[in-house]
Specification:
By secondary structure, the protein is mainly alpha-helical. The chain is built from ten helices and four strands, in the order ααααααααβαββαβ. The protein is elongated.
Length: 253
């Protein structure tokens, strides 16, 4: 008959087992509790209070190869940073994009449905700046952005620009001179009808041979910058200033 074990030995083993189980349970609970925290370690970029649109401007600059300083300068003159800004001619948001222009750009660049959304509006404005620069060079693209490409074509044909557009170009030209577009740029031969075939123009019905400008010609709104005394804007020649845009996924074509 086996000798009976001391009671204190049996009780000690039970105590050790309970302690081990409790310790193991605690480790499991601790691991489970730490899992959600580990899954949320990816930082979420939030707009800064000091620069609420900085992240969107940086994204637009990288996507379309436009200097951030250009986007900031145009946004400042166009809307003074007012997200809900709307002009008397219907230009919308931070970059004052016309409705027809927005309708085309949002489809091409897969933007949202709200033209006043800061990110989408900045992306649309930057894309349009790039397209105007690729077509007209500098500083002519500023006049085309402000007054519309059709109105700028009239200027090239001899019709003076509106006073507000002249003041607009005069205000922004010094800033624009401090930045360069990124990506390869190829000089193209002058083509006086190139603007009618560009992707910024929506073709009308098949029965019409004309094209409707995407950027509706807007009556320039008054701005606080004084217009130059002379009715003249230093615009690059068509041969030197007309560029063919780089091939970028989602960017201007």
């Amino acid at each position: 008959m086996p000798a009976a074990r001391p009671k204190h030995a049996v009780g000690g083993r039970i105590t050790l087992r309970r302690a081990a189980l409790l310790l193991l349970s605690g480790l499991i609970l601790a691991a489970l509790g730490a899992s959600p925290a580990g899954a949320q370690q990816v930082p979420v970029e939030r707009p800064s209070r000091n620069d609420p649109y900085g992240a969107y401007i940086a994204e637009a600059a990288q996507r379309f190869g436009v200097p951030e300083a250009w986007i900031r300068a145009v946004m400042g003159v166009e809307s003074a940073g007012d997200v809900r800004a709307i002009s008397s001619s219907g230009a919308m948001g931070l970059m004052q994009v016309m409705p027809a222009t927005w309708a085309e750009l949002r489809v091409r660049h897969r933007l949202g449905a709200n033209p006043y959304d800061p990110r989408d509006n900045i992306l649309a404005g930057a894309a349009y700046l790039r397209e105007m620069h690729d077509r007209y060079g500098s500083p002519g693209f500023l006049a085309a952005y402000n007054a519309g490409p059709g109105r700028y074509e009239e200027y090239l044909a001899g019709r003076p620009l509106p006073a507000e557009t002249r003041a607009y170009v005069a205000a922004l030209a010094p800033v624009i001179g401090g930045g360069d577009l990124t990506g390869p740029v190829v000089v193209a031969a002058a083509d006086p009808l190139a603007w009618t075939r560009a992707p910024l123009f929506i073709g009308q019905s098949s029965g019409s041979g004309s094209a409707m400008p995407l950027q509706s010609e807007r009556e320039p709104d008054a701005i606080t910058v004084a217009a130059p005394e002379r009715d003249q804007v230093p615009v690059a020649s068509r041969t030197e200033g007309l560029f063919v845009g780089r091939s970028v996924s989602g960017g201007p074509r």
